[in-house]
């Protein structure tokens, strides 16, 4: 009795996810320049024309990759927060640690996530403000919002600090051209500014 060959799972409706995963792998391995529709198709084991059935060109693929990247990003931050400690201050430092670690591990992915223009975000219905990642930031910052202060002020202070640090650090502008871990840069010294978040004593 002969057995009927089984096709790969992505041929049964999961091709879109297979192409997204292929895109993430290509970005991690070769940076922004490595991400093409043809390379994604080859990595997923399908014809070069297959991505056209799921994405509106390379821009559509990038947007889909960014959506998945935000989920990975959220997991990085939560894992780091849970490992840091139970106090609100510990968790705040933890999500920042996870943010930077994500940037070190997925540099091109971070660039893709935050490199989308407003038109692409609207077209693909990606709202960073509604994402799990931003909700994690919001929840973690909540204990540090002083009375009569807009919560967004504290959120943007923390976000600006950690995002600015991450982008400078992973691009080699903070004293180490090819950083591989947090210890290659002044993470603790810069994140000491978090101790002032929500402090109104000097105002």
From TrEMBL:
This protein's record includes keyword Manganese: no
Keywords: DNA-binding, Transcription, Transcription regulation
Domain of life: Bacteria
Record has Hydrolase as a keyword: no
Single Gene Ontology MF annotation: DNA-binding transcription factor activity
Start and end residues of each HTH tetR-type domain: 13-73
DNA-binding region range list: 36-55
Name of the protein: TetR family transcriptional regulator
């Amino acid at each position: 009795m002969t057995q009927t060959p089984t096709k790969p799972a992505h041929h049964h409706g999961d091709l879109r996810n297979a192409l997204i995963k292929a895109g993430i792998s290509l970005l991690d391995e070769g940076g922004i320049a490595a991400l093409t529709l043809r390379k994604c198709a080859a990595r997923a084991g399908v014809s070069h024309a297959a991505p056209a059935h799921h994405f509106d060109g390379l821009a559509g693929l990038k947007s889909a990759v960014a959506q998945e990247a935000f989920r990975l990003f959220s997991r990085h931050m939560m894992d780091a927060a849970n490992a840091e400690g139970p106090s609100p201050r510990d968790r705040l430092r933890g999500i920042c640690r996870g943010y930077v670690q994500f940037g070190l591990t997925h540099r091109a992915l971070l660039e893709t996530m935050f490199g989308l223009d407003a038109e692409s975000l609207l077209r693909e219905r990606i709202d960073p403000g509604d994402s799990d990642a931003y909700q994690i930031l919001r929840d973690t910052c909540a204990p540090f919002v002083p009375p009569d202060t807009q919560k967004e002020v504290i959120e943007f202070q923390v976000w600006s600090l950690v995002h600015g640090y991450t982008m400078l650090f992973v691009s080699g502008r903070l004293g180490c051209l090819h950083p591989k871990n947090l210890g290659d840069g002044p993470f603790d010294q810069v994140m000491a500014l978090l101790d002032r978040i929500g402090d109104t004593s000097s105002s």
